[in-house]
Amino acid sequence: MTPTLVIVGAGPRGTGLLERIAANAPELYAGSELDVHLVDPYPPGGGRIWREAQSPLLWMNSEAQDVTMFTDETVAMAGPVRKGPTLHEWAALDGRAFTGRRRQGAYLRWVYESTVAALPPGIRVHHHARRALRVSGPPEGRQQVWLEGRPEPLLADLVVLTLGHLDAELDDEQRRLAAHARAHGLVHLPPDFTADTDLAALAPGEPVLVRGFGLAFVDLMVLLTEGRGGRYEGAEYVPSGREPVLHVGSRRGVPYHSKIGYDWTGDRPPLPRFFGPAEVDELLARPEGIDFRRDVWPLVEKELGFAHYHRLFTAHPERTTVAWADFEEKYAAGVGPELRALAASAVPDPADRLDLDALDRPLEGVSHTSYEELQDGLRAYIQDDLTRRHDPSFSPDSAVFFGLLSVYGQLVRLGDIGSWWHGFFSYLASGPPGPRLRQMLALSRAGVLKFLGADMTVSAGDGVFRAASATVPGTFVEARALVEARLPHPTVERTRDALLRGLYADGAAATPEGLLAVDPADGRVLDGSGTPHPRRFALGPHTDARGSGAFTRPRTGGPAFRQNDATARAALTFLHAHHHAEGAVR
Fold first, then answer.
1. 391-423 pLDDT, tens per residue?
2. Residue 178 near residue 190 (C-beta atoms within 8 A)
């Protein structure tokens, strides 16, 4: 009987796993046959999120030169490097371009097709354009993968879940808001992948409350403005008259920071320095467990500060008052308040110092007397951010970006560290392209976009929704429509994915944040006792080994690549041994 591997999820993570199978098969599976069944209702390569059939107005959130599906020598993995083109090399684009998601989908389709072509002759791939509903079977025997609309299951020696982003059932607050909308004929759009959201109910000219100021909001903004016939003429927006009026707020009350708009020059900071493998080993060895803010954050903060000041002192020494060697020695010995005092004494301009608390809460303590005054303040904030992020004299910001990538590569080993860090990382390192923020300013001047401020709250009463914020105390905005502009946060209990929910019901372990618990070594699914399932693996954002984003930047070590390689090698080793054991029995 030919060994069988079922991969549930054919997006970038499933494609990346298949690429690692192709790379490792000559060493671990030479001359043997294998049937790989790829299960996903969406096309292989792009999957749901990056499918080619979506609006041409939606962009990639990374420069084309920063997107690759291929490994390089910076990835710490056991398997071989199999080089391939970045998105900009494949598409012959300007490396600094933010291309459309359709083109990214085409790149991913090409990666998938070239990977399948690179598989040894005995390894065959079969795509099933269906949803996987359930996995059953004993740990010591073949697994059954049940598909929607198919009476017989796929039989698998191993199953790997590469599910990507999932939908979620509404939480208690969302259910209350949805019930209020139904009772009063209002519009309530819960968290969703914006490209899949039906926006037709948002009427032209009507106020719409939007909670969420990240990347999902940017997509919403685009689809409700240019997507409805508006256009930009230089720095101004010309409405079509079909746009609603968007009132947007969030916890921070500001959009994510602009992508950095200049090239790096010189050497990168020597990272990791204060938060590397040794520090993670020490944290993992603590029998009492760890608390992120108490035990991990001080190390992260010191690492990011080191990246920042290394660049400032070495690239802009005229803005410092001591030699780098002296500063570094004192920095290495200092903690907490000592580091802030050291920076204050050696860096005269506060704008050159790194203050992560101020970055995280830029409107803390800011108060306006009216929403009109707030609009002017937020436009000035966004313009200042754009200016700074496109000025190489502030290149320590770019060094902090490299520090964030380094930190993320270490944090993956700690498993579920809570949701705060992931939001902070995205806010600093994964914001929109500069042109999107310039569009935001134009929409604000045109009156199509209005800012609500920080610590936004939403209430339902008297047949409407009301939004208030701490930035304009004592006032509120009413609307008959509310959009939750963010991706769902699907825990194993609230996910709409029947397969994942079923795994949890059958005994798979979950973390306190509701993520599927996996073995950090190779991605095997853990049960409640911490025992790895011998025949089930999982990779991606639904697990506690989730990475820093959808794609890996070239030459940054790529934790997702490392995970894919480890899972591929574990799967091939198991299948090869199992196949030969069966042959010996026969």
1. 999 999 999 999 999 999 899 889 888 889 989
2. yes
Query: Are 141 and 24 spatial neighbours (Cβ–Cβ below 8 Å)?
Result: no
Q: Name every residue whose Cβ is closer than 8 Å to that of residue 245 and which is 6 or more positions away in sequence.
A: 205, 206, 207, 208, 447, 448, 449, 450
pLDDT at res. 550: 65
Measure the CA–CA gap between 60 and 97, rounded to whole angstroms: 9
pLDDT score, position 546: 75
Distance between CA atoms of residues 380 and 68, nearest Å: 35
The three-point CA angle 163-164-167 to 5° equals 90
Give the residue among 173, 172, 169 at the shortest CA–CA distance from 457.
173
Adjacent-strand bridge partners of 477: 467
Radius of gyration of the chain from its Cα atoms, rounded to whole angstroms: 25
Give the phi and the psi of residue 63 in degrees, each rounded to 5. Answer: -65, 150
pLDDT at 229: 98
Q: How far apart are CA 355 and CA 372, in angstroms?
A: 29
Which tokens sit at 486? 């963010």
Residues 298-311 pLDDT 10s: 999 999 999 999 99
Residue by residue, what is the 3-state secondary structure of 499-549? Answer: HHHHHHHCCECECCCCCECECCCCCEEEECCCCEEEEEEECCCCECCCCCC
Could you say which DSSP state residue 322 is in?
S
Given a cut of 80, whether residue 549 has pLDDT beyond it is no
Contact between 448 and 243 under an 8 Å Cβ cutoff? The reply is yes
pLDDT digits (tens, 9 = 90+) for 463-482: 999 999 999 999 999 999 99
* Nearest in space to 423 (alpha carbons), one of 557, 513, 516, 290: 513
Taking the C-alpha atoms of residue 49 and residue 38, their distance in angstroms, rounded to an integer, is 17
Question: CB within 8 A of 293, min separation 6: which ones?
Answer: none
Q: Which residues contact 218 (CB under 8 A, 6 or more apart)?
A: 255, 432, 436
Q: Which residues contact 586 (CB under 8 A, 6 or more apart)?
A: none
Distances 6 to 9, 132, 151, 155 between C-alpha atoms, Å? 10, 10, 17, 8
| Domains defined for the chain, CATH in brackets | 4-45+118-168+490-585 (3.50.50.60), 172-256+432-484 (3.50.50.60), 277-429 (no CATH)
The structure's pTM equals 0.93
Q: Report the alpha-carbon angle 565-99-60, nearest 5.
A: 55
